[in-house]
Design brief:
Elements: H1 5-9, H2 14-26, E1 43-46, H3 58-64, E2 68-71, E3 79-85, H4 108-125, E4 129-135, E5 141-146, H5 149-165, H6 174-183, E6 190-195, H7 203-213, E7 217-224, H8 226-230, E8 237-240, E9 247-250, H9 252-276, E10 280-285, H10 290-302, H11 306-309
Parallel strand pairs: 3-4, 3-6, 6-7, 7-10
Antiparallel strand pairs: 1-2, 4-5, 8-9
Helix pairs in contact: 2-4, 2-10, 4-5, 4-10, 6-7
Length: 311
């Protein structure tokens, strides 16, 4: 069953939402051969005495009435930093005049926060150390990496507060990424950034390149609203900047072509910049099922090769 992001957002607490997203993604893992440490398992084997019970796949047992164990290539504990861009541009959630009168979906902030919450849920279940940093909240919100089960409750509570308080300010994630680079010089980590990457300059891209130069493993979840990709506005429309007081009254038809060309140029620049430094890049939209976005990220990481996965 595919659940749209707006439906997931209306579920109960954040742990429930995270579990639903993870279960939706894991239900598709039988289509991929995932190899690597921790959050990427290789295959199943039938349970035999001495295997760790924490690796028993209870869903497989429910379907086949036999015990199977998830096999991992590496059991080294992974340190993961989840970085959420909470700057004001992430508050965008469609709106304006729409040709099809479709309802406004979740904001980029909520979509990105839910995706990172699901990753935290999955990683801590498999005993990885997970930390969290949100930029744009007035000052960086930081949760140090830990692996305890109780840590999940604390971490998801912080993510929930960031989502509830909303996106504010114009701070890019660059400073949060620089903080990780400073604190993690000796131990290589997996860094996952969820952001719209809307910088006036390339500070965030530069900070990501610096982390990659330190041999950290990096995945970028580039979150955009469908309206930002298609510009579906008609009639005289007032546009208000989210990170400044700038207001513009325009006829969308007069600027649509130039806007779409600039958007494609921006996306091409981001993709090329990240590819040049070997950073794993995923462009997604807030109307796409969250479990599909999560599955794409996990499958892509499984194809990076042992040198990239062993961090």
């Amino acid at each position: 069953m595919r659940l749209d992001p707006a439906h997931i957002a209306r579920l109960g607490s954040l742990p429930i939402k995270a579990r639903v997203i993870v279960e939706g993604a894991l239900s598709g893992l039988h289509r991929a051969s995932l190899h690597g440490a921790s959050i990427e398992f290789a295959e199943h084997k039938e349970y035999s005495p001495g295997d760790e019970l924490r690796h028993v796949d209870w869903k497989a047992y429910a379907k086949q009435d036999r015990y199977y164990v998830k096999q991992f290539e590496h059991e080294s504990q992974l340190t993961i930093y989840l970085v959420l861009d909470a700057s004001a541009s992430m508050a965008f959630a469609g709106g304006g005049l729409k040709a099809n009168d479709s309802p406004v979906g979740v904001s980029k902030l909520e979509y990105a926060g839910l995706a990172l919450a699901a990753l935290a849920y999955l990683a801590i279940q498999q005993q990885d150390k997970v930390g969290f940093i949100a930029s744009g909240t007035g000052r960086d919100t930081i949760v140090p990496p830990r692996a305890r089960t109780t840590h999940l409750h604390d971490l998801l509570g912080v993510i929930d507060r960031v989502i509830t308080n909303g996106a504010v300010g114009d701070a890019s994630p660059a400073d949060a990424l620089a903080r990780i680079a400073e604190q993690s010089r000796r131990r290589k980590s997996l860094v996952i950034l969820a952001s719209d990457l809307f910088d006036l300059d390339d500070r965030t891209l530069d900070a990501l390149a610096m982390l990659r130069a330190q041999r950290h493993d990096i995945s970028v979840l580039h979150v955009l609203d469908p309206h930002e990709r298609t510009f579906p506005y008609y009639g005289l429309t007032q546009f208000e900047a989210l990170e400044s007081n700038h207001v513009m009254l325009v006829n969308p038809a007069a600027v649509r072509r130039e806007y779409l060309e600039r958007m494609e140029t921006f996306l091409a620049h981001v993709k090329a910049s990240l590819a040049s430094t070997g950073i794993d890049y995923h462009l997604t939209s807030t109307d796409r099922p969250l479990e599909e976005t999560l599955l794409d990220l996990l499958v892509a990481r499984s194809r990076l090769g042992p040198a990239r996965r062993a961090v």
